[in-house]
Amino acid sequence: MFRFPLRDVHMDSNSKTSNKPFDIDQLNKLVQTFKAEMLHSLLFVNNVREISLCEISEVSGQPFDEYKVTATLSPEDEKSLEEFAGYVKETSRILRKGSVSLEDVEKREVSYVVSLEDNQGKKERFLVVQRCGFERDAEVPFCVNSAVKKQELGLLPRGGVATLLDSPSAADKKAFCFLPLPFTTGLPVHVNGHFALDHEARRNLWRSESEGDHRGAWNTMLLKSVVAPCYVTLLRVKPSQQIIFRHEHVSRVRSSLETEDER
């Protein structure tokens, strides 16, 4: 549950949270922005199956669902995703402990179909492929390995892709860091990854001009060695997805993110 404190111009000077007013109009804009992303917010999360926007009735004083989205998987897919989530949790534990290096993390992949539906009649089905772990022949940059050993980088080699089934859409596909990020990628699929994000808004990928920057190197490797193999799996399962994830697509993603970050 999120609670947003409303502050008028008379209250903001005494607020310990912020000195800027936050009125009902701003709250409504924030809610509408969140509402527009709610359906796809369930694509790459493991344990959340429902999100609701509630209002309190002026008549009864009781909350009701103003907007709600749900995610449904088959029992078999639910079990597969649960096992994958357990493996991710164990991988996180042994990496933090230093029991294994990034190269030694055994890759694990899961594919499943998730049905997304809202209470206004909109339904979408997605084929999702997720992976944890790099390929055996993946070359982990020295700066990344060094950052992991020094515990300066606590991210997991985890990513995935999702494509719409039944009625393919020409709408722009988004980048995700488990939840949607505010830019598109130019690719034919949604892309998810445990990316390094900027320190401020946490809504843009980490950018650096330094060649030895471990965060930038991590993001590039995640795209090449985790996301791209997921796309290959998706092509095998759904061969009608004709566009191949080539090396230039990695550059396209990075270019798209950098352009959006500069706006």
TrEMBL record:
Pfam entry (one): SACS
Protein species of origin: Nematostella vectensis
UniProt cross-references to InterPro entries, sorted A to Z: SACS/Nov_dom, Sacsin_chaperone_reg
Annotated ranges, domain Sacsin/Nov: 1-65
Annotated protein name in UniProt: Sacsin/Nov domain-containing protein
